[in-house]
Amino acid sequence: MAKGNSFYEFCPSVLIFQSSPKKEKISMALQESLAKFKKQQEKCQSTLTSIAAKAGSSKPTVPQKFTPAAPTKPPTPAVKFSNDTERLQHINSIRKAPVGAQIKRVIDLLLETRQAFTPEQINEACYVDTNANKAVFDSLRNNPKVSYDGKRFAYKSKHDLKDRSQLLVLVRKFPEGIAVIDLKDSYPSVMEDLQALKAAGQVWLLSNFDSQEDIAYPNDPRVPIKVDDDLKQFFRTIELPRDMLDIEKDLQKNGMKPATNTAKRRAMAQVHGIASKSKPKKKKHEISKRTKLTNAHLPELFQNLKDVLRLNGGVNVQFSNGKKRGAIFSASVGQNSSNDTEGKRKVVEHICLLKAKENLSEEEEKDMLDYLYTTQYQMRGIIAITLGRISDQNIENYTHAVYMRFQRKEDLGKFYENPFYLGVLRERVMPYCHGLIYVDFESEVEDDILPIFRKGEEFNYGVEFILLISFAKSKFGGPAEDALASLAELILEFPSLIVQSTQGLNFCPSSKEYTHGVVIRFRSIEALELFTGSTEYKDIWRSKFQMIVQKTLPIHFSVDPGSKREDSYTLHSALQGQILGCLGQMGKEKCLGRKAVFLEQVINVDHRHKLWLLGA
Question: Where is the TFIIE beta domain (predicted)?
Fold first, then answer.
């Protein structure tokens, strides 16, 4: 009987026919369990069908209930788990990736679409669940390339630009150039707009030799630039040393630090057994009919080399070994040779002090100073210029100072009569000012390009100090000259404080209020205070000046490359109005040699100027 009971326990269908109440209860329990299992299976089948439908189409579909008993509809085929495994694994790999990788994925999405996304939309688009990952959410919210308004994330570019007009306005705010890489993500078509602005002549796109990235410069329409053909030809005839060692030595002698160290590199090569090979000199070929000209739009580049040699005259540059920054130049034409030693060169200094109105706005002040500065572009002869707001209070209440240097008195006379300058005074200066004074005097400076033109690293910073003196007429000659000579000797004892100094007798016919003028370029405001506060200066002033001076006017203003206008136009002002005028006085051969050094100092200020120089 025990064996029969065991058989019935494993055969529920047989138990159904038993009449025992206990067996009926067991049968009912088994039927309920079977029904629950079938319902659970139907639910799982429905879920898999819904997932498969979503994966096949983006439109939501209403899952149909699985009704196997319905005779009119065939049963939906079962979805195997392996069909969606690859997509689920991809989502899982994204969400388990490092935070940085997930952030990049979201930023790429925002950059490509340029739309704002909620966390839920980001999850649907790129499977990054920012709500479930607090580290990703916080990093995304604090990312400088992402903006978050509390609900949505959006891409944030460095410059908020929308179209070409806003792009042009931004570029014009950066006269020293703006990196194109900072503009690339402003809006989708920004690169096309940059090329269109370049084609229209409104901006320059030049390469940066350090990073090989393009730099965008504004093309200022207020400054018409025309480079004479003679200057272009002179520039192209200059030949740099072939050996990098010579180039590095020349840079060091002119106060510049080379970016390379050829001597060290060659020494290391020899230590490791690598012999440095000098590049063979390429044979120069004459231009012939078979020569392929790649720059046919610049015919001046293809003039016969004999013309270049005849114009050059075989200029050789030899730098002196002394402490001074001067150079000894020797030029040879044919069989003749001559040496020109260092000396002094006469220059004419021009000072203009202005009394601006009290209600002068910053925009009006900038407009006035800009137009005064651009007068140098309209005439030759101006070889240096600085201007700015006077830093200290003075008894005459002058507010602004303009300093210019001319080559000759004749150039200064033409300057006073120049129509453009007279128009600037009439329309841009006098409406904002109620008084001005001129002081002109002749002086001497070191006969070298950098001191004459006040260019180079030493003149990029500092303080311009102007001292106007009115000596008693009875003291002209001996006492006055003795006092000025003592001041000049004292200045020579402070080379660490003073870059350059000039002084002389005022010969301006329209202004006789002051008899003499002194211009001193100090290296800093601290240098000015140290000099004027020194015991030596006070002793000379008390013993030499105080008894013979009727009145004085000391003023100073800062020369700062970060704000002064000279940096934006250094090469143009130096070359357009200065070197060409210098040729007539210094001679072609001598100026050619010195210009090689001078151009090294000024060309690197701004890549735009290279285009201006070449007449592009």
Answer: 87-162
CATH class of 84-155: mainly alpha
Q: Which two tokens stand for residue 388?
A: 């700015």
Are 21 and 32 a contacting pair, CB within 8 Å? no
User: Residue ranges of the alpha helices (H) in 18-174?
Assistant: 21-56, 85-95, 99-113, 119-126, 134-141, 164-172
Question: Cβ neighbours of residue 570 under 8 Å, at least 6 residues apart?
Answer: 455, 602, 605, 606, 609
Report how far Cα 467 is from the mean position of its chain's Cα atoms. Answer: 36
The string of DSSP letters for 225-263 reads ----HHHHHHHHH----SSHHHHHHHHHHTT---S--HH
First to last CA, the chain: 116
For the chain, what are the domain ranges? 1-56, 84-155, 164-218, 232-260+299-342+573-616, 344-567
Section 494-521 average pLDDT:
92
C-alpha 519/C-alpha 580 separation (Å) is 25
Contacts (Cβ under 8 Å, ≥6 apart) of 97 = none
What single string gives the DSSP state of each residue in 434-462? EEEEEEEEEEEEESSHHHHHT-SGGGSSE
CATH 1.10.10 fits 164-218, yes or no: yes
Q: Do domains 84-155 and 164-218 have the same CATH topology?
A: yes
Please, what's the largest Cα pairwise distance for the chain? 155
Instruction: Evaluate whether 466 touches 526 at the Cβ level (below 8 Å).
Output: no
| Span 420-441, pLDDT tens digits | 899 999 999 999 998 899 999 9
